[in-house]
Amino acid sequence: xxxxxxxxxxxxxxxxxxxxxxxxxxxxxxxxxxxxxxxxxxxxxxxxxxxxxxxxxxxxxxxxxxxxxxxxxxxxxxxxxxxxxxxxxxxxxxxxxxxxxxxxxxxxxxxxxxxxxxxxxxxxxxxxxxxxxxxxxxxxxxxxxxxxxxxxxxxxxxxxxxxxxxxxxxxxxxxxxxxxxxxxxxxxxxxxxxxxxxxxxxxxxxxxxxxxxxxxxxxxxxxxxxxxxxxxxxxxxxxxxxxxxxxxxxxxxxxxxxxxxxxxxxxxxxxxxxxxxxxxxxxxxxxxxxxxxxxxxxxxxxxxxxxxxxxxxxxxxxxxxxxxxxxxxxxxxxxxxxxxxxxxxxxxxxxxxxxxxxxxxxxxxxxxxxxxxxxxxxxxxxxxxxxxxxxxxxxxxxxx
Length: 400
Ligand SMILES: Cc1cc2nc3c(=O)[nH]c(=O)nc-3n(C[C@H](O)[C@H](O)[C@H](O)COP(=O)(O)O)c2cc1C
Hints:
- This protein is of the alpha/beta class.
- The chain folds into two domains: 8-181, Rossmann fold; 190-398, Rossmann fold (3-Layer(aba) Sandwich), CATH 3.40.50.10300.
- Helices cover 34% and strands 24% of the residues.
- The protein contains 14 helices and 19 strands.
- It has helices at 22-31, 50-57, 68-73, 76-82, 93-101, 107-114, 127-131, 133-144, 170-181, 215-226, 254-265, 307-313, 330-340, 382-398, and strands at 8-13, 35-40, 85-91, 119-123, 148-149, 153-156, 162-166, 190-195, 200-201, 207-208, 230-235, 247-250, 270-273, 280-282, 301-303, 319-326, 345-350, 362-368, 374-381.
- The longest helix is centred in the last third of the chain and has 17 residues, at 382-398.
- The chain is elongated, with a radius of gyration of 25 Å.
- The mean pLDDT is 93.
- Bound molecules: flavin mononucleotide.
- Residues 14-18, 41, 43-44, 92-95, 124-125, 129 line the site of flavin mononucleotide.
């Protein structure tokens, strides 16, 4: 079950060209089983019809503060009090100014003033408007008051200008909603997560790698970020986009991953090595493409740097957690690896199964600790597994 599941989300839609993108946000919220109540401003209704938002949200769209029927069915105070989250996307310069100044002259500004729920604003406007002294000051005051923001993206705007002002990508807005509503067991912690495979070059076009997709490591990084940690994700080559609101360092080889993880680990509280680092590399990769003609089909291999072992030898006060992908004798191999590499926990999964592990969106894992405790996390999404792993690590490792 995701963070937004069962949550009451009030979505304010204001009068900008990007109002049509609110439809996609409503759909995403519904997909995650949130109950969505849309408040559409009078200007917003110039850009998008209440019917579209009502059909997608499966709730009546509220527009008028003084409407007798909607006020009797779900009044403005009840709407404000029931909300777990108030989002405004897109947020015009006008609504931002009204909220900052304490103006409550329509349904949306009144609900924002009457709510105790966190408020998340996704501004969208012309670049000059966004750069104006009034908007800058309003945003900075609201930030100090604890309002949450998703900064607009840069690019070509509907008005023809180029610059920051385009409504942030819907995925980013959704992720900020999850961050705002998540509990924060890792607040103040710095964590490093590695993900994906590494690629060890045979020549400039060929490499040795493995089937890791990076999905489990990315889920671990995203979840740590939602839980309040400052996260560095060190990723080998994957097709996954950089997750928003955390630092991603892209690497290719085990050697590059070693350098990036070691550097990021210096001031970290925990390092979680989720990456499937290649065990072998070609001894002396060819500087030019190897030609088929005249090739004797033999490649001499050498071991890659053992990142976990090196981190285990210089652990300091950091928690060090490994992942183990096993096909046989899962428990014995995982526990043996944990001891050999001086880990504080190991998360093991059976990669011989086709329904979990590599490339799959799901996983099922066993977490082993050096004191003999074992926690089993049953089959669920990798995001769900990541929640379970962080909560288990938090209870065992960070509260000692
Ligand atoms: C075609 C058009 C596009 C507009 N786009 C934006 C916009 O992207 N951002 C913005 O802050 N205002 C925009 N405005 C101005 C707002 O619609 C106007 O300030 C309005 O009062 C906002 O009301 P509301 O905040 O209650 O929705 C636009 C106006 C027009 C006519």
